[in-house]
């Protein structure tokens, strides 16, 4: 079975280190710089009741509880 030009794992490893990791670093730097420059206060919490309708029976038996945040 012949491998194509991108069949070698070394090519993908090199692309990951040369392209993907620096791109993630640049994105993280951009977010960090934007957060430092623009400090917006958090909007006040508005309890929208239509978004909190619990009708399904969950894993724990109650529709109001979840497995996360216990």
Automatic annotation (TrEMBL):
Predominant subcellular localization, coarse grouping: mitochondrion
Transmembrane helix in keyword set: yes
Molecular function as annotated in GO: enzyme regulator activity
Gene Ontology CC, one term: mitochondrial inner membrane
Keywords: Membrane, Mitochondrion, Mitochondrion inner membrane, Transit peptide, Transmembrane, Transmembrane helix
BP-aspect Gene Ontology terms: mitochondrial electron transport, cytochrome c to oxygen
Compartment list: Mitochondrion inner membrane
Signal peptide bounds: none
Transmembrane segments: 12-33
The keyword Transferase appears for this protein: no
The protein's name in its UniProt record: Uncharacterized protein
Organism name: Anas platyrhynchos platyrhynchos (Northern mallard)
């Amino acid at each position: 079975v012949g491998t194509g030009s991108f069949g070698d794992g070394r090519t993908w490893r090199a692309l990951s280190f040369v392209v993907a990791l620096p791109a993630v670093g640049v994105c993280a730097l951009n977010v960090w710089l934007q957060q430092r420059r623009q400090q917006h206060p958090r909007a006040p919490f508005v309890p929208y009741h239509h978004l909190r309708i619990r009708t399904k029976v969950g894993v724990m038996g109650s529709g109001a509880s979840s497995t996360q945040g216990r």
